[in-house]
Amino acid sequence: MKGGDEAQRVLALRGEYCIHNNYGVTLELVGAGTRVPLVTGGDVPYADLDCAASTPALVEVRDAIHSLLDWYSSVHRGAGFKSVVSTAAYEGARSAVRSFLGARPDDAVVFTRNTTDAMNLLAHALPEGCEVVAFETEHHANLLPWRRRPVTFLPPPHSAEAALDALSAALAGRATGERVVTIPGASNVTGELWPVREIVELAHAHGARVVLDAAQLAPHAPVDMAGTGVDYVAFSGHKLYAPFGAGVLAGRGDWLAGAEPLLAGGGAVELVTTSEVVWTGLPDRHEAGSPNVVGAVALAVACRTLEAAGMPFVAEREAALAHELVEGLRAIPGVELYTLWDPAEPRIGVVTFNLAGYHHGLLATVLSAEHGIGVRHGCFCAHPLVLHLLRVDARDAARLQDGVRAGRATLLPGAVRASLGVGSTPGDVRRLVEAVADIARRGPRWCYEPGGHRDEFRPVPDPRPLPDLPFPLAVAAREAP
Ligand SMILES: Cc1ncc(COP(=O)(O)O)c(C=O)c1O
Asked: Which of 299, 188, 204, 186 is nearest to 250 (CA)?
């Protein structure tokens, strides 16, 4: 290809892979348009429809980290000038996150590794005897940490109103001690947006606090802590275009200030003697160890960039694409779409489905190997919800559990999930719909066999070379428990 043609192609790709809003703000992702090999030969631009799992970095994030690295040094305890700059960058990041979340002035903003870390920290910090009310539909990060507390799990609600009714019944007449209600902002499996404001009103009327798992809300729609009154919010940078290992727990400071650190170590203390420790205040109390300044700055830059673009704009654009995707998939014979609530309810761009006659792992592998489309498959770390959606009854669930415990090669039920982000295009959506329709009509054009972990498949042979990169690459070997 001549230089001019190549420049045109790159420009066209850039046009396809960045979005522009009415204020002239552009959102562009690192690696957009990267070409990936197909088993059938040739290569195509990668269609990343796995944004609910992890997103690429925004170009602004990459550039900011590049600048930060020139000034990178220890934070908080260094006297050197670079330490002063790095510390200012770290604390500046906290302010940017606070603004993005619409936090109250007295809310604590604690940097964590991710949402899982944030939820475990909060579950640990609840006052003794605090009761938790949660739904069985939650991601494991918002399910398992609470099992260490007195917890009531409510069954999957069939609508937003049913969720409110179930909560109202669970909270009625039991106002003895502290209580929290924990909810998702949006489902990572079925995409529904939960009625946060109404749940907060209801919970507060019963004296309960509300924890918002915003892992799937923050990247897709506005989070407004002060406006909704939600008491705690957790989210992850790697799902918000800042994949540098930082997440956030933000919210009311009293319980956090009173709790012993979950992670004990340097930076979380005022004074240590051989027998005593005086823990420090928030937020350092819960940030023991050397802070992830790169991750925090990356997250802050992503927050600022999205805030400038306008989260309502991001949400609106994604809703339109999600609609196209749902309608396209729905029209394919053999496709079953899964939703918890009426499909017309407000949602983010997360669409979960199966194709009759295909194991979910096989379908996802064919989409990748023959079409260059990245999706996720399995149970999406929400086993109770997925088993409910797939109508797996208790007896079958017990059989599966026995098989897994005994280490048998048990193919788990599941589904395929396509999820959108700011880099998703109408072209990506079209490609997925056409690929699923093609597989439904003609079947795969390559051979596949079960391989890798429990419910994964692999092409046989797999002629796709891994790219030549300046670091070692190894294929993960995972053993059954
Ligand atoms: C709704 C929801 N909550 C929590 C998590 C956990 O996030 P992380 O793996 O970043 O801790 C996820 C991840 O997929 C999620 O989708």
From this structure: 299
